[in-house]
Amino acid sequence: MMNDIANHNNEDLLKVIKQLLAVVILLVATLVIVTLIAVLHPDITSWFKKSENQIAREQAMKKAREDMKVSSKLKEEANQFWHANDITTISDSNEKALVEYGKELISHTAKYLGPKGSVMQITNGMNCQNCHLEAGTKAWGNNYGAVFSTYPKYRARSGQEENIYKRVNDCMERSLNGKALAESSREMQAMKSYIEYLGKNVKKGEKANASGIYDLPFLSRPIDPVKGKELYIAKCQSCHQPNGEGLLAIDNIEYTYPPLWGKHSYNHGAGLYRMSRFAGYIRYNMPQGASFQNAQLTDEEAWDIAAFVNSQPRPSKDLSKDWPKISEKPIDHPFGPFADQFSEKEHKYGPFQMIKDEKKKQKEAKEKAMKQDSLSDKKNTKI
């Protein structure tokens, strides 16, 4: 019996010894492996790092997913944009002829009213659609979508209610730096009929979605004509030319690419001479081929290009009767006097948010004063 116990203990001891030997062998093997790894691959952490190619692939995939989301969002938004009435569906032959002539005048103004115009010679040679893209039908392309639905309306620039005739002649005298058309002329009646027909699908008093020009958010800094010049050279001058005076077509009547400054461009009374209007215009329309869904410029680039272009020489206009109520002058109207303490330079280049905040503050103070005066009048009446 004693022998059995001794044998059993010996077996247990052998098992323990074997287990210890196995552990020792495992530790030695691990040490050898670690040593070899340390020699052959000194940066073990690199095993757990992604390669540059893998990181680049993942970043590209992430960007593609983000771009797809943005594209989908833009497409969804664009589906809600206003679309012009189709003039080919007009059944009345006389009305259709007048509207079609209106479209022709908008598309090829210089051919009829320019320096070599076949009807009269009263404009600078630009076409209306140089500013109102695709004959006034493009989303955010300064289109006519809200004209029929909102006119006649009060405009602060003149300080009075204006009709469509007045609005068209504003463009004739400012953007086309020319002379006004007689309201009774066939040309005026045709353009008015065309513009009205395009927007007759918009309810009176409402504004069409994506009509006019996109309102860009203000930058936190002044806009920069120096940066704008660099951008103009890189992105604009191949069409509008280094001198900014555009490129005439072979017929020498119309511009293939319109002048952005110089004697044949819009004068400084035109809407696009305001920085916010021009920056918003080029943001989703320039360079050629750009659109809301396919923008080629950032907000910042659009602002700086506007700063450069609208710093170049162009025809002038008597603006002494504009903005009769100076408190109604827009933030970026660069000609004094102003209802605030900011200079003409600040009103031209900004930073515009600072001026906007001050204008809001003044408005609130005025409303508060009027309210206090009203309360005081009521109190005096009771006494």
Structure overview:
- The protein has 383 residues and is mainly alpha-helical.
- The chain has helices at 2-40, 52-78, 93-107, 109-113, 133-136, 147-150, 164-173, 186-198, 225-235, 237-240, 275-283, 299-309, 344-349, 352-382; strands at 153-155, 160-162, 247-248, 255-257.
- The strands form two sheets. A two-stranded antiparallel sheet has the order 1-2.
- The longest helix has 39 residues, at 2-40.
Helix content: 40-55%
Beta percentage is under 5%
As residue ranges, the low-confidence spans are none
Mean pLDDT: 90
Please sum up the structure shown.
It is built from 14 helices and four strands.
Attribute tags:
mainly alpha; 383 residues; two-stranded antiparallel ribbon
Question: Which helices and strands, and how do they pair?
Answer:
Layout: H1 2-40, H2 52-78, H3 93-107, H4 109-113, H5 133-136, H6 147-150, E1 153-155, E2 160-162, H7 164-173, H8 186-198, H9 225-235, H10 237-240, E3 247-248, E4 255-257, H11 275-283, H12 299-309, H13 344-349, H14 352-382
Antiparallel strand pairs: 1-2, 3-4
